Amino acid sequence: MQTQPDDMLKPSAPPITMVPLYDYAPTATTGPIPKKKPKPCLKVICCILLIIIVLITVFLFFTLYLFKKREVQITANNASLEDLSFTITPITLNLVLGITIGIKNPNYAGFNYESTNTTILYHGLQAGVSPMQAGTVKARSSKTIHNTIYIMATTIINSPFLLPEMIAGKLPLSSITSMVGKVVLFNNIKIHATVDTSCDIVVDLQSRTMTSSCNGKVKIS
C-alpha cells in the first residue's frame, strides 16, 4: 500500500493581508471650524496704546502751536499836530501833540501791559509827559492807543536853542514810550514783552504842520 507525503495531506494556508497600523481616512465635519477668541489682555494693551498716542498728539499740538511764543507786534506808530500857537516877542508857545501806537497780539491769550508814560524831549530836556493807563490787548487781536501830550513851554523857555529855532520856523522834538507787559497762557506759561517806541518830530511853525519818523521794537523774554 502506497503512502502519500505529509506535505500533500496538509491544507494550504490562506493568504496574508497587510493591515495598516493607522487609518488616515478623513472624517466628515458637521460645520465651520470655530475661530479662537482674542485674549482679553490684548484688547487692554491696544486701548492703552491708543490712549497714549492721543495724549502725545494733544501734547504736541498745545506745545508746538498754542503754547508757542509769538512776538507782540507794533502795527502803527505815528505823531500828529493837534494844536499850535506861539509868539516870539515875548516868547510863548502852546503846542499839543498826539502820539498813536498800534499793537497786535498774535498769541492765544491777552497781552496785559502796565501803566506807563509817553515823554516828549526837546534837545534832551523833558518838554511834556502824558500818562498811559494799563490795559489789555485781547488774544489774536489789535489795539490802537492814542496819547495827547501838552508841551510845557516853561520847562524849555530858557533853552538857548528855542529862540533861534522859533525864528527859523523849525522846532525839533522827540517822543519816547516804553510799555512793559506779559502774556499768560492757562495761568502757567508767561511771555514777558517790552514794547519800545520812539519818534523824531519836526514842527513847522510857519505852515503849522508837522513831520515825524517813528520806530518801534519789541523784546520777548
TrEMBL record:
InterPro entries: Lea14-like_2
Alphabetical keyword list: Membrane, Transmembrane, Transmembrane helix
Transmembrane intervals: 44-67
Superkingdom in the source lineage: Eukaryota
Keyword Transmembrane annotated: yes
PANTHER family for this protein: LATE EMBRYOGENESIS ABUNDANT (LEA) HYDROXYPROLINE-RICH GLYCOPROTEIN FAMILY
Protein name: Late embryogenesis abundant protein LEA-2 subgroup domain-containing protein
Source organism of this protein record: Rhynchospora pubera
Classification lineage: Eukaryota, Viridiplantae, Streptophyta, Embryophyta, Tracheophyta
